[in-house]
Amino acid sequence: MKTVFALLLFSFSVHFACAQRELLMRADSFLTARYRNAKVDTAYISRPAGKWILKVRTNVSGSEIEAKTVADGISYKTKLQSDFRMTLSLGASYNGFSVALSINPAHLTGKNNDFELNLNSYGNRIGGDIVYQSSKTFSGTLDVDDKTNHIARGLVSQKILVSNVYYVFNNRRFSLPAALSQSYIQKRSAGSFMLGLSFWGGEISYPGEEAAEIPSLDINHLYVGLGGGYGYNLAVSDRWLFHLSGLPTFIVYGRRKVRMNDNSENSNYSFPEVIITGRGAVVYRFGRCFAGFSMNSNFLNIGSSQKLYMSNSKFRGRAFFGITL
What is the pLDDT of residues 216-264, one digit of tens each? Predict the structure, then answer.
């Protein structure tokens, strides 16, 4: 009886292993066909050789805030900058599906508690990115009328969620992912007009300083923008790719609430208010390897100096090295 049971168990295990292997092979064939059969002009765009892309990356990011306002006849002007944040990451992509692991050395040692999460999906036709940042390392100056006060690191905090979605018209010949994720190769130079949808929301807090008679300040804001821009890939020989694109979107919906000490008010919309997304990259390919750097920046410009004027910028630079297998 034990022998019969063992044979049945062995037979079931072999059958299950074969079925599992067949399922994996079918899934692999489906993903490979989906990855390779992209509807592009292959004279301009192609997939890299191999199913796997392995990358190591160094990322540097930061933020800057400039603001002006007038309250009770007093003029306030500030300029603040966060600490630069550096991360090291390892990434792997299989037939277009990617995962990555990032490490912030300064965060591990307790020197920088800023947090940032980046999600992106770059396609030839449609794509975009989402960035969430929580920063408590801003420092800079605050001018109250003609007196300059220094804002110590850690007093001003900001939480923002920034998103940009794009649509590319000339998607058969122009490839954003060739520059930004290296999942395509741009073989010949091409450009395209693009449509964009942007979102920017967040809050800025400052506790104020009683000794310097500086009021506390809290700003909660949310904006949605629509617009269009242009991107261009310059392919030099079979090795170099240079990319530059700009996507300004005009704010069609905006909401912000400003609280100074115990007084709060809703700030009015002031045309034109914009969210601008800029991207740039340089990629060098040699054999199955590639290296380069890329830049992604987001810029918000809102308001007027009579109520509240603010410009808020967020950037991320990335150096990378990868190989296709």
Answer: 888 899 999 999 999 999 999 889 999 999 999 999 998 888 887 777 7
Contact between 55 and 320 under an 8 Å Cβ cutoff? The reply is yes
Count Cβ atoms below 10 Å from residue 113 Cβ, excluding itself.
Answer: 14
CB 157 within 8 A of CB 205: yes
Element (H, E) at 286: strand 274-286
Query: What is the reported pTM?
Result: 0.85
Any long-range contacts for 28-31 (C-beta under 8 Å, 24+ apart)?
Answer: 28/95, 31/94, 31/95, 31/96, 31/97
Cite the DSSP H helix spans in the chain: 2-36, 105-108, 176-180
Q: In terms of C-beta density within 10 A (0-12 exposed, 13-18 middle, 19 or more buried), how is residue 43 classed?
A: exposed
Backbone angles phi, psi at 49, to 5 degrees: -65, 145
Lowest mean pLDDT among 74-78, 123-127, 302-306: 302-306
- Give residue-wise pLDDT tens across range 266-310: 766 677 899 999 999 999 999 899 999 999 999 999 887 667 888
Answer for the pair 189, 234: CB distance below 8 angstroms, yes or no. Answer: yes
Q: Which amino acid is at 206?
A: Y
Q: Half-sphere exposure of residue 180, counting CA atoms within 13 Å on the CB side?
A: 24
CA dihedral 319, 55, 169, 244 (to 10 degrees): 10
Question: Nearest Cα to 114, choosing from 148, 75, 82, 151?
Answer: 82
The structure tokens listed for 77 are 């002007």
